[in-house]
Amino acid sequence: MTKLFESVRYLKGVGEARAKTFANLGITTLYDLISYFPRTYEDRTRILPISELQAGEPACFRAFVTSSPRTHHIRKGLDLTKLTVADETARLNLTFFNQTYVADNLETGREYYFYGTLNGDYLGYQITNPIFEPAETPGVLTRRIMPIYPLTAGLHNNLISRTVQQALNVCLDGLPELLPEALRAEYGLCDAATAYRDVHAPASLEALEAARHRLIFEEFFIYSVGLTLLRANRSRRSQAPFVIPALSELEAALPFVLTGAQKRAVGEIAADLAAGKVMNRMLQGDVGSGKTAVAAAAAWITAKNGRQAALMAPTEILAEQHARGLEQLLTPLGVRVALLTGAMTAAQKKAARAAIAAHEAELIVGTHALISEATSFSDLGLVIADEQHRFGVAQRAALAEKGNDPHLLVMSATPIPRTLALILYGDLELSVLDELPPGRQPIDTFLVGEDKRARVNAFIRKQVSQGHQVYVVCPAIEEGEDESLRSAEVWAETLQMAVFPDLRIALLHGKMRSAQKEQIMAGFVRGDYDLLVATTVIEVGVDVPNATLMVIENADRFGLSQLHQLRGRVGRGRDKSYCILFTANRNAETLKRLKALCKTNDGFEISREDLALRGPGDFFGTRQHGLPAFKVGSLELDLKTLQDAQAAAATFAASEALPTRPEYQPLMERIQALFASSDA
Q1: pLDDT grade, residue 120 (50/70/90)?
Q2: In 3D, which of 7, 119, 8, 130 has the Cα closest to residue 60?
């Protein structure tokens, strides 16, 4: 066990400089090294005769060197070494670029194994820079399933492979077994040492599959056990049960009828609040599904029990919007709403904090100002976090510390497939708003190329002439980030100077100061601008009912879920709204992906498609969500293993005194390390 955590400097050939290069990959110990899994594999076990080699397909073959290697100096920095090899079926030319050493390592008349890709032109077929080994030696680079590792400058694949093998030889015997024997037997899993050995040096594809299955199960199991323990720990925390008032009183006062999904979510929250335990619930709903009304109901129940509720929003302008909307809903019900943001004057903040401390407000809406030391609550009973992925665990915890174990409701407008939600938010109960309020119009979405630019510009002008506003979203901020991408700065200037000189155009992007962003967005809300050219900083934004058109440049550079969130910025008023996706990319898969967005406004259906196409690593476009970086498991490809691991974790955690049993100490240490590193 002790050697597992030796520095990689322990290994032959790893000096101080190379150790620093490994550290760039997050590898500092031998355990880090053997846990650095290949990203893919090349099957070099199938040996073909030269006559059966196919152009463009890498292959392994056995042949004699039939001509002495000849090196030609072409120019400075370019040397070519050429030779001919043959087997009983055919001859083949080999060319090596800047590898003059091969002349000393390939002997005429000697037999070697080669691995490379056949390519051809008018001069005939050849292989360039093949890998080779003498036929009489054990296969290290040929005749095996070769792991291919993620690389960084200064580390090539063969070096990583050799170093990993050294580490395995040193520390494999001391590798802790994290999965109990009975569980391995039940799910047909190999032991840890076999899994680590075979994932780096598989003797067969079957051995590789068994190793990967074990490691994927282990990853999902560790995370699922951790979530189960978190949930169990939270469920032991008690709160005085809330008395739930008649919800008919709330419904009668609302200016709209709650959907069935909203009523179900309110019922689930009410049950939590009445249970005598601390609520930890996530409210997940598509754009426009009515999460704010559900949050209002939770705040109303809290206020009726003499407690305070706090809603934390990610931006000042969104906090102001929430405060206005919730005040309209809750004031008739006797709930006093206060606003607290950093942009308020010192006098305004002082007055708001005095009202909060004196319990002169039952619902306090704000930004990070809510968690400042200067803010004290009289009796905080409920914390609501809007757009929960914008807040880290530490920020939510800081707000929760303002009360005595207050209930927690987190809200997300990113529809997540249930399987992903379970692994991401498995420590939270889940309420889903899968129904849109009546009257919410679908947004017509169109995919166009540059040839439709003039027509789109005419449509923009038509929308503005009718008194509406338009968003234009670009993937880059400034020129030069990527020559193929449209930049917001340059495009805003172009539109103002050359296309719409008579329109009022504003620019908004993430590199601006917060106060400047808030000022521009507030101006757009007031109607001071006709067009807002922006980056994805508006993805989660404010309600602008007058905005009816969303134009997205280089739409192929965004994920489907991100495009759906951007599209959700329009369609918030009574007027018909539209979304136009520009792309010059003609790739069939890309077009298929974008056309999927044109066919549906259902965020859950879109998220399922996005997850299948892009995988969870890119699903959110940000790592702020607490999703662990699974090294071998894939949430979309390994669904059955995920479900097995979750079931096993639930049973295991319920039946074992995990934290206290010494044999499970390595498992507990892995769980703690994972959760500490993922902000989960």
Answers
A1: confident
A2: 130
Name the domain boundary from 544, 571, 600.
600
pLDDT at residue 137 in the model: 94
pLDDT in tens, 534-548: 988 776 667 899 999
Whether 117 maps to a domain, the answer reads yes
Using the 3D structure, point to which of 600, 627, 656 is the last residue of a domain: 600
Q: Are residues 509 and 574 in the same domain?
A: yes
What is the sign of the dihedral through the CA atoms of 616, 622, 628 and 631?
positive
Residue 110, domain CATH: 2.40.50.140
Question: What is the per-residue pLDDT across 652-676, written as a single tens digit (0 to 9) for each?
Answer: 887 766 666 778 888 888 887 777 6
- Residue 395 included in any domain: yes
Q: Encoding tokens for residue 152?
A: 């960084």
Q: Judge if 56 and 5 occupy the same domain.
A: no
CA dihedral 140, 141, 144, 146 (to 10 degrees): 120
332-375 pLDDT, tens digit each:
999 999 999 988 899 999 999 999 999 999 999 998 888 888 89
If you write DSSP's letter for every residue of 300-361 in order, what string do you get?
HHHHHTT-EEEEE-SSHHHHHHHHHHHHHHHGGGT--EEEE-TTS-HHHHHHHHHHHHTT--
Same domain? For 577 and 452 the reply is: yes
Count: domains in the chain: 4
Rounded distance, CA 444 to CA 454, Å? 19
Domain that holds residue 1: 1-44+161-175
**Does 388 share its domain with 458?**
no
Q: Are 37 and 215 in contact (CB under 8 A)?
A: yes
The distance from CA 370 to its chain's CA centroid, rounded to whole angstroms, is 28
- Domain assignment of residue 472, yes or no: yes
Looking at residue 442, what DSSP letter applies?
A: P
**In the block, residue with structure tokens 């539109």:** 495
- Are 23 and 62 in a shared domain? no
Q: 458-463: which pairs have CB atoms within 8 A and are 24 or more residues apart? A: 459/549, 459/578, 459/580, 460/500, 460/531, 460/549, 460/551, 461/500, 461/503, 463/548, 463/549
Query: What is the rounded distance in angstroms from the CA atom of residue 486 to the CA atom of residue 480?
Result: 10
Strand (E) positions, 386-448? 407-412, 429-433, 444-448
| Distance in angstroms (rounded) separating the CA atoms of residues 382 and 400 | 8
Q: How far is CA 27 from the centre of its chain?
A: 22
Whether residue 261 is found in the same domain as residue 404 = yes
First-to-last alpha carbon distance for the chain, in angstroms, is: 27
Non-local CB neighbours of 67 within 8 Å, separated by 6+ positions: 83, 84, 108
Q: Is residue 435 part of a domain?
A: no
Can you list the alpha helix ranges (DSSP code H) found in 425-542?
Answer: 453-465, 488-494, 514-526
Q: Which residues contact 192 (CB under 8 A, 6 or more apart)?
A: 175, 176, 177, 178, 179, 214, 218
